[in-house]
Design brief:
With 381 residues, this protein is α/β, with parallel strands linked by helices. The protein has 2 domains: 173 residues, D-Maltodextrin-Binding Protein, domain 2 (3-Layer(aba) Sandwich), CATH 3.40.190.10; 155 residues, Periplasmic binding protein-like II (D-Maltodextrin-Binding Protein, domain 2), CATH 3.40.190.10. 37% of the residues lie in helices and 19% in strands. Strands 4, 5, 6, 7, 8, 9, 10, 11, 12, 13 and 14 form an 11-stranded mixed β-sheet that branches. A 3-stranded antiparallel β-sheet has the order 1-2-3. Strand 4, helix 3 and strand 5 form a beta-alpha-beta unit. Helix 2 packs across helix 10, helix 5 crosses helix 12 and helix 10 packs across helix 11. The longest helix is centred in the C-terminal third of the chain and has 19 residues.
């Protein structure tokens, strides 16, 4: 696995066209092609290409592995922290050592902008995508940029955690508040979101910037739904500090620059306290814990669709979900995967989740991003 971004040539091109096309392959031909033997009598494998130019085919696991072996490479674009993303790719490569993975890491909206540039230039490198914003995938689907297929492991997900044939929830994250108990007594720590608006916290709250992070925008959206736009107007008058990442927010908390983190990914607090030994305590608000899912999907223009399909199946499997939970401390939406050690089950928390469709969420995103910009970035237009 490498995180560099060298130029690569497209080893195979995905078939495209406005009409459906059926390409008949054979498992025997695949094997023969790999070992250099002449093909014997053949068993047909049907691979279809939809009107949107997205390949979708009923392949057996053996056939999929044979095709993936021929591609031999996969580019994964993600908003996961680099260390954890690299650790997860190592688990995948251990299972499929014939695949060389390449990691491209950025914030949710930086990653999306990069993919949009690649699409516009006709030079898509991304094969698989995972960011914390289902609206991103809704938009890519509308534009015909998602490869349509049905991963075998998708059957273990509830309908609200997938868009059949297009994307599937790779993880669920919860958003909490946090504080350093050496500087804020436990008794004084807020227990609800509106308590962040108390005068004593003016200039003492840190927020992740919703113009860069999908989870931060989800928090903005869900708390706006719960308390109205007035909540964020009041928050803006609190003069909060804005940070690009959880790491920056935790550093500000440790240095005393802020006293409260007003929006943190729960797994990052978990990692900081349990793994890094940081003095930080999460607050799971009594009035509701925002939760957002991070989908995984395959790009229709990506050069290595079959390695990406293998990656999606691994990411959604019990093995992959358990690995992700262990590595990240985040939640799986599979019922047969335990929550992170020491964390309550999702079913035991009062969650704030989307009340409506992801299409509506995407439709409102640009307008609410502009609203957020006016409140927290005075120079925004």
């Amino acid at each position: 696995m490498t995180t560099s971004s060298p130029h690569i040539s497209r080893g195979r091109e995905l078939l495209r066209g406005s009409a459906s096309l059926i390409a008949v392959l054979t498992s025997a031909v695949l094997v023969a092609g790999l070992c250099g033997c002449p093909p014997p009598n053949q068993t047909e494998i049907t691979v279809t290409v939809s009107e949107e130019g997205q390949s979708a085919g009923p392949l057996t696991p053996e056939e999929l592995i044979a095709l993936a072996r021929r591609e031999g490479e996969m580019w994964w674009y993600t908003s996961l922290p680099e260390k954890q993303a690299s650790d997860f790719l190592e688990r995948f490569e251990a299972k499929y050592p014939f695949i060389q993975t390449r990691l491209v890491r950025g914030s949710t909206f930086e990653t999306v902008q990069r993919i949009d540039r690649e699409i516009a230039q006709g030079q898509v490198k991304a094969d698989a995508l995972h960011v914390l914003d289902p609206a991103v995938f809704t938009d890519l689907r509308r534009r015909g940029e998602l490869y349509v297929f049905n991963p075998e492991q998708a059957r273990f997900l509830q309908p609200e955690y997938l868009d059949s044939g297009r994307w599937w929830a790779m993880r669920a994250v919860t958003i909490c508040m946090a504080y350093d108990p050496t500087t804020v007594p436990d008794a004084e720590a807020p227990r609800t979101w509106p308590e962040l608006l108390a005068p004593k916290w003016r200039g003492q709250v840190g927020l992740k910037d919703a113009q860069t992070g999908g989870s931060a925008f989800a928090q903005y959206y869900l708390l706006r739904e719960e308390y109205g736009a007035s909540y964020w107007h009041s928050m803006a008058t609190q003069n909060p500090a804005l940070f690009r990442s959880e790491s920056d927010t935790l550093a500000a908390l440790a240095s005393g620059q802020i006293k409260l983190a007003g929006g943190m990914l729960g797994y990052r607090v978990y990692q900081a306290s349990r793994t890094d030994g940081a003095s930080v305590t999460p607050i799971w608000p009594e009035d509701g814990v925002p939760m957002i899912v991070g989908p995984v999907a395959v790009l229709s223009r990506g050069p290595h669709p079959h390695t990406a399909r293998l990656f999606v199946d691994f990411a959604l499997s019990q093995e992959g979900q358990t690995a992700l939970t262990e590595i990240m401390g985040c939640y799986s939406v599979r019922d047969d995967v335990d929550p992170p050690q020491g964390r309550p089950k999702l079913s035991e928390m009062k969650l704030l989740t989307l009340d409506g469709s992801w299409e509506e969420y995407r439709t409102r995103q640009d307008r609410l991003q502009a609203e957020y910009g006016r409140l927290f970035h005075a120079e925004s237009e």
